[in-house]
Automatic annotation (TrEMBL):
It comes from Fimbriimonas ginsengisoli Gsoil 348. The chain crosses the membrane at residues 20-41. SUPFAM superfamilies: Pili subunits. The lineage of its organism: Bacteria, Bacillati, Armatimonadota, Fimbriimonadia, Fimbriimonadales. InterPro entries: N_methyl_site, Pilin-like. Keywords: Membrane, Transmembrane, Transmembrane helix. This is Prepilin-type N-terminal cleavage/methylation domain-containing protein.
Length: 281
């Protein structure tokens, strides 16, 4: 080998990374990952919330179409038991001819569980399945508690563009929560970790939707509502709702007497959850 060829090979030899340089690169990658992973998680959460709102939009329109076929009257949340024909069943079953897809009654933030009899079968038989879903129906938004839980009539409502009919909710039952009560769902107790009905919409908002509550509104639109959940500083959700009910509303006085009732009785929140003492509000 000539001296010139040896010189060329020596001159083109590459220098390897030092340990310090490798550590710097790894540190930069770790920093970028720490910055970007939460962003990716937020984007994924936002995408699931968008999918949930799409489901709620379809549910809202199904409710409106049902009402159009029944003199502007909404479907009852529960008609007394499993599917037995025109005089029985649950809202999900009554709305099925309008929805045609039971996946729309599920919150996209969690997968739909597999369970026996989870889809309607031939001849209208639903098996043992009745009312599963994690987009639950609001007893206060769809019915009139003060009048024996009769269904609301859309044209009789004062705030159809604000009144919530369905919302994301969670319970310990893997098959979901098909309905929730009237006033108490606006209070969620973080300290006690209450996630059974009636606090299940608060649990869904706090744990899955960045404190926003994906909701279907009576006029047919869907929204991720902000500021609709009150989280008390102590374990007093039930105590505060009972104190207001026993001291005020049961006597026909609808003025606040504690922090929760002051939150609930503001017009925007009240119009969202609906009242149990007036069928038009």
């Amino acid at each position: 080998m000539s001296h010139s060829a040896f010189s060329i090979r020596v001159g083109t030899a590459r220098r390897a990374f030092t340990l310090i340089e490798l550590l710097v690169v790894i540190a930069i990658i770790a920093i970028l990952a720490a910055i970007l992973f939460p962003v990716f998680a937020q984007a994924k959460q936002a995408a699931k919330r968008t999918a949930t709102l799409s489901n709620l939009k379809q549910d809202a329109l199904a409710n409106v179409m049902y009402a159009n076929d029944f003199d502007d009257t909404l479907v009852l949340v529960w008609l007394g038991g499993p599917w037995t024909g025109p005089d029985g069943g649950f809202a999900i079953q009554k709305l099925y001819p309008y929805i045609k897809n039971l996946d729309t009654v599920w919150d996209a933030s969690n997968p739909i569980p597999n369970f026996q009899g989870g889809r309607p079968m031939k001849d209208g038989y639903w098996g043992d399945w009745t009312a599963s879903g994690t987009l639950g129906f609001s007893n206060g938004g769809m019915m009139m508690p003060s009048q024996g839980y009769k269904p609301r009539v859309i044209s009789s409502q004062e705030h159809p563009a604000e009144l919530m009919m369905m919302a994301a909710c969670r319970t310990s039952d893997p098959q979901g929560c098909f309905a929730f009560t009237e006033t108490q769902p606006s209070c969620y107790n973080k300290i006690q970790g209450r996630w059974e009905d009636p606090q299940s919409p608060g649990y869904a908002a706090a744990s899955y939707h960045n404190n926003m509550l994906p909701s279907a509104i009576m006029d047919g639109h869907a929204v991720a509502a902000k500021g609709m959940i009150y989280s008390p500083p102590a374990n007093d959700c039930d105590a505060q709702t009972f104190a207001w009910w026993s001291g005020k509303s049961s006597k026909g006085d609808y003025t606040p007497n504690n922090e929760w009732s002051a939150h609930y009785l503001t017009p925007r929140v009240l119009n969202f959850w609906g009242t149990w003492w007036d069928g038009t509000k």
